[in-house]
Amino acid sequence: MISRPIWASVLALSEASIKLQRPELSSTGIDKAVGAPSISDINLDVTNLIFLRALNEAKNCTTDIFRAWSPKRIYGKELMETIAPHAIGRDLTSAIYWLLVRLDLAAALATDTKIQVPLPPSFPYHAGEDIKADPFANVFCFAHRPLWLCARAVEFVHSIDPSPQSPLLQTWMQLMEELELWHQERPQGFQPMMELEIEDQTADSRQSFPLVLYASGGGVFANQLYHTAMLLLIHNKPRTARINGLTSVTMSPLWHAQRICSIALNNDRRECWDPCLLASFLMASRRMTHESQQQEIIRGFERIQKVTGWDAGRLSEDLRAEWSLLEM
Asked: Is the Cα torsion angle 212, 213, 214, 219 positive or negative in sign?
């Protein structure tokens, strides 16, 4: 029998999602029941407790993204350490773990804070022959690897006391190599179906960004997070780091920031949006200085709000304020 707190959270999340599409509907009061387990449900097992937390975080993203993206968010260290070993697998606990990683990564990117969900030191899935033979496992592996690498990049950026066994330079080099390996190995479904640089577009084009289109939600998700991870690492490159085989363009933070914006601006399907993609777009947008780019970004946030129902308008207001400070 499902616990009452989880049932209430599922209903509240469902109600919040419906309201995004039909805001004229009145509240049923379901969301008042969401929160910590009641006394009668205090014996919830760890999986149910974490599931309840994930549902509440998802609801916060749906109803009040600023509340969800709090720099002072606390997930509970003991609870997170309990779920970390379940990163691998296809069971409910594994799905909950990766959902929490996405939600926490979104908050970390938006607020420039450290990630709180514990991350496995190595990616728990590998693109071996057994995975390549399974279409679901193959898509899952190539979609979640950039997610893990992006979260690791955030973890690296906010490393204060690195482990002696894994100094900063070694960690940076490893992450860069793994990102490049993913980029080289990604299957056709994760490669762009169209890619045009700004100079390749028609002279009368109003585009301020390169045109990068993907045919699937997995391609959008994985590639935007790949560019996000690269942007973070390049901006925090150790002085003595040397990478062979990468072009000067690939090592340009602006190149990656523009591609993040392009992917986001051309993502017009509700089912392809994720809070960490919105936060990634926000992070890259802060680096755009040309007025034409800024105007296109503002229109993009307005379109995202219409597509998803998220309060992206407030994000564009904050962006305008930040851009004004840059001009001073």
From this structure: positive
